[in-house]
Design a protein that fits this description.
Helix content: 40-55%
Distance between the termini: 53 Å
Oligomer: single chain
Strand order of the largest sheet: 1-2-3
Strand content: 5-15%
Largest sheet: 3 strands, parallel
Structural class: mainly alpha
Order of helices and strands: HEHEHEHHH
Length: 105
């Protein structure tokens, strides 16, 4: 497994946030092909877009079970997560922001 074979690589990002504004750490981990554990609630679930192990952030048992699942995330899933993360660009953010402004004007 990745964790025991390459100690220079992160085994996962644990991010069971209760209140998150956007989720840059999630995207950074995904872009680096690091498995992500995050919350079922808040914006983190939306940012993860189905590419993370989701847990109940107030449940120690849920988080522990999620940590166990991180080791089983396969390389194709990490590649898919990296592709998902690559869709979040500053250009896209600017275009979507401008679109909202035009609709409100």
């Amino acid at each position: 497994d990745v964790c025991s074979s390459d100690l220079r690589r992160s085994c996962g990002l644990l991010y069971p946030s209760l209140l998150e504004g956007f989720g840059f750490p999630i995207l950074e981990a995904m872009a680096s092909r690091v498995p992500v554990l995050t919350s079922l609630r808040s914006g983190t679930e939306e940012i993860a877009g189905g590419h993370a192990v989701l847990v109940e952030p107030l449940s120690v048992d849920s988080i522990a079970a999620g940590i166990d699942r991180l080791d089983g995330v396969a390389a194709p899933a990490l590649e898919s997560a990296a592709t998902h993360a690559s869709t979040f660009t500053w250009q896209r953010a600017a275009e979507q922001t401008l679109e909202v402004y035009w609709r409100l004007a």
